[in-house]
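Incident review: delayed structure delivery

Summary: a single-chain prediction request sat in the queue longer than the usual turnaround. Root cause was a stuck worker, restarted by the on-call engineer. No data loss occurred. The affected request and its eventual output are reproduced below so the record is complete for anyone auditing the incident later.

Affected input:
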Amino acid sequence: MGAYLPPSPAFIVAFLFAIASLSVFPEVAFATSMHASVTRHYKFDIKLKNVTRLCHTKAIVTVNGKFPGPRIVAREGDRVIVKVVNHVSNNISIHWHGIRQLQSGWADGPSYITQCPIQTGQSYVYNFTIVGQRGTLFWHAHITWLRSTVYGPLIILPKHNASYPFAKPHKEVPIIFGEWWNADPEAVLQQSLQTGAGPNVSDAYTFNGLPGPLYNCSQKDTFKLKVKPGKTYLLRLINAALNDELFFTIANHTFTIVETDAIYIKPIKTNILLLTPGQTTNILLKTKPQAPNATFFILAKPYFTGLGTFDNTTVAGILEYWNPSNSTSTNSNNLPTFKPFLPPLNSSITTSFVMNLTRKFRSLANAQFPANVPQTVQKKFFFTIGLGTSRCPKNQTCQGPTNSSKFAASMNNFSFALPTTALLQAHFFGKSNGIYTTDFPSFPLHQFNYTGTPPNNTLVSNGTKAVVLPFNTSVEVVLQDTSILGAESHPLHLHGFNFFVVGQGFGNFDSNKDPAKYNLVDPVERNTVGVPAGGWVAIRFLADNPGVWLMHCHFDVHLSWGLRMAWVVQDGKLPNQKLPPPPSDLPKC
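Output delivered after worker restart:
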């Protein structure tokens, strides 16, 4: 019988740290290893749950009966395994928004792009490793409008023995923005698609699923951030709203932006920020040195640049200070509440403010966190994005821009038609014929004054089109807003990659003058960028991830109308540059 060896001090420290982590993040799944990188297992049961908001009770689709859904917590380098079991009548798929999915494209999640949806009574195991990423992301349903209730935080901590590039905060708090409909969002979507009209807007915005006291019947459903004086809090902000960019502010407080889309940035001090749907931002909130005899509104309200209707309401939470001298007797309901200023909903001043703020975002670009922006590019693309129309079916009256048309959305005037077989399967098995074509135009087929007087013909073409890229191609894409049915901002999200925002501006992009103004030193790195209303954005990325990757507007109304396209990135020559075969439980269409 061998001699007993006591645990090493390093093991004891690691064990105690693991226990501490579980107390800080109670929803961390069991990890199957005590080493630096571990495998974290989760189970998502898709089920209906009765939820009441605004004095209205309805059954909603949830994960594990929670709204919002459970928190995923992992460290950089960890492997994450999530078994999703579908107990509802809706088809479902889950997207891990912002995860690079290096060599794990089968786990990306968009229905009919990387997988067929998980049908009723079926399950699928998402299996991916977090490589070179740390920060705040989120997960959400990626089919129809189910992400209105199926979403949750995805928090990536630094590796063991790695620290933040700022002082360790006293506490970390996720705040996820959402939208609430009293009606069934699936019915709202179907009515819009059938009639061709814009969809009915939401009834409220929410913080962590709670609408707050500015809405009817919602005083008890209020998010409260309870803080101690003289402390620094890391707030992990996530915009999971379906169709609205949202301003965020806290009354009588400033904060420092330190990260966007899970990428550290040079600190920006401000008292207002804007998040488009799909964007995440970490901020450091330094509380006041002494507890004031007041509470403070935390507000979010929309920034709207389009011509249609929108949810013109405001979600409110409450910032409360803990006062040790009155900790047992202080009643925050008896304290005055300060309300912050927010910019006007839609004005040229607000649009200029948004542009000036976004131009301040810069990568750290240091030895530890470099900005590996491609200095030269092998492939250049110019994509127009915006709204258009499609013809109303015969013998039907529609409610689009005219009674003979429906609203549509497009990139380079092509509205993406969802296939009935997942594109990644068709690509991997070499059976793309009849599923998709590879002739998505690199530039608009018909040029016009994109932000000026719109053309008379607003009809879009339809097709399931993709662009093929050889492995490791350096790419530049200029995203140009159009004024065909009114200029408006568009949050563009790219799956499978981060990209560098090297330039942006108002008006039409000038290929002769604007590239000279590019920032190729420390541009911000993102996975979702807001294309300004009546303007353009230039992005660069390296196509180093084999697979099929969706690029789309993160306004779900525009996504439903077809504002998306796909990149097909071919395998490289080395084993670690190839997409492995699909898992055996990949759902079938």
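Verification: Helices lie at 9-24, 185-195, 348-358, 423-428, 556-560.
Action items: add queue-age alerting; document worker restart procedure.
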